[in-house]
């Protein structure tokens, strides 16, 4: 197996097997931390589709994350467990519907205006949940029972068990990864890559770019809603802070830290940022200075971004790729003046832009 195939298929498989084995670590704290990383990894994957796939930088992506979480809390019965067959599609569709309505408007803007309009729509959703009784105000809503996955009265998976829920979160992350990988390798993904590179040229080639961008925006919103749904089931409560602009900035930082070019960068960025937060908040490591963990985190991110311009995924690829053996092949002899290199294409006269 070549090095490129190993880095593309082998490393994700090793990570999945490591996460699966981590479920039996015996520590609720570390398994909870791993679930948090996987959920934020799914959240970052949804935004990476927009930022790295289409070139759309959104500061309102937390609205879909929060809507998925609130749908899980608001639609769940208070006295018993709800049905996963109803709650999961409802949360995903709720986020997707909001993405469809808002995306139809925000995608008519570009650049800084797109960023500001997405932020405005996210803040609207935030204040609806914060200032009304619908979302429980600043106190939020509690989710007392995780939904059940029953088949005709038979309960194959008990999500109230933390180990079972852990594997459910891992399965959702793997399915989202596979879905996005298929999207990138499809003609739809090729069109999105063309839009990211040069939207004007895609229009000149006959593509209507607006439906492509809207479809990607809705898909990203639905995946973010799935991540919010899992987050609500994990913690058992939902607050309006899940929709705040800080949450959108946090997941955008995960994508940048991990690397925009590759899909795995989003998950690596989520893992790196969550682990850095846990490290700098640890009083056992930093003592009283842990109260100022935001300062330490900011400095660490500045250093990492400056040191790794391609993100953490660039560092991982550098570790896998073997160094080039420059001494193996001798330097080619200089060609005589006027000779033509057969490896180079012949010059073509005429318009170079044709």
TrEMBL record:
One Gene Ontology cellular component term attached to this UniProt record is: plasma membrane
Q: Which residues cross the membrane?
A: 49-72, 84-106, 112-129, 163-183, 210-231, 288-308
Q: Where is the composition biased (Low complexity)?
A: 324-343
Q: What is its main location?
A: membrane
Question: Any idea where this protein resides?
Answer: Cell membrane
Q: One MF term from GO for this chain?
A: branched-chain amino acid transmembrane transporter activity
Instruction: Give the residue ranges for region: Disordered.
Output: 324-354
Keywords for this entry?
A: Cell membrane, Membrane, Transmembrane, Transmembrane helix
Stated membrane topology is: Multi-pass membrane protein
State the protein's name.
Branched-chain amino acid ABC transporter permease
């Amino acid at each position: 197996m070549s090095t490129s195939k190993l880095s593309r298929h082998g490393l994700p498989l090793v990570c999945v097997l490591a996460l699966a084995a981590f479920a039996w670590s015996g520590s609720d704290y570390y398994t909870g931390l791993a679930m948090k990383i996987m959920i934020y990894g799914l959240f970052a994957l949804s935004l990476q589709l927009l930022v790295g796939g289409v070139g759309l930088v959104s500061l309102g992506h937390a609205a879909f994350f929060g809507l998925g979480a609130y749908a899980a809390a608001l639609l769940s019965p208070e006295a018993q467990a709800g049905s996963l067959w109803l709650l999961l599609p409802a949360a995903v569709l709720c986020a997707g519907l909001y993405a469809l309505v808002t995306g139809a408007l925000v995608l008519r803007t570009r650049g800084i205006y797109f960023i500001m309009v997405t932020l405005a729509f996210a803040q609207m959703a935030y204040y609806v949940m914060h200032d009304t009784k619908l979302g429980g105000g600043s106190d939020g809503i509690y989710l007392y029972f995780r939904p059940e996955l029953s088949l005709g009265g038979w309960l194959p998976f008990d999500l109230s068990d933390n180990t079972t829920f852990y594997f459910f979160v891992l399965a959702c992350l793997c399915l989202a990864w596979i879905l996005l990988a298929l999207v990138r390798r499809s003609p739809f993904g090729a069109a999105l890559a063309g839009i990211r590179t040069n939207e004007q040229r895609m229009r000149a080639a006959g593509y209507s770019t607006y439906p492509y961008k809207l479809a990607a925006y809705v898909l990203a919103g639905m995946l973010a809603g799935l991540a919010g749904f899992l987050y609500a089931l994990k913690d058992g409560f939902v607050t309006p802070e899940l929709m705040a602009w800080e949450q959108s900035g946090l997941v955008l930082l995960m994508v940048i830290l991990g690397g925009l070019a590759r899909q795995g960068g989003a998950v690596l960025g989520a893992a790196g940022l969550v682990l850095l937060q846990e490290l700098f908040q640890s009083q056992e490591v930093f003592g009283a200075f842990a109260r100022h963990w935001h300062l330490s985190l900011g400095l660490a991110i500045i250093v990492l971004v400056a040191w790794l311009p391609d993100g953490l995924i660039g560092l991982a690829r550098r570790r896998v790729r073997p160094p080039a053996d420059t001494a193996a092949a001798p330097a080619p002899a200089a060609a005589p003046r006027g000779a033509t290199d057969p490896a180079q294409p012949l010059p073509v006269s005429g318009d170079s832009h044709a």
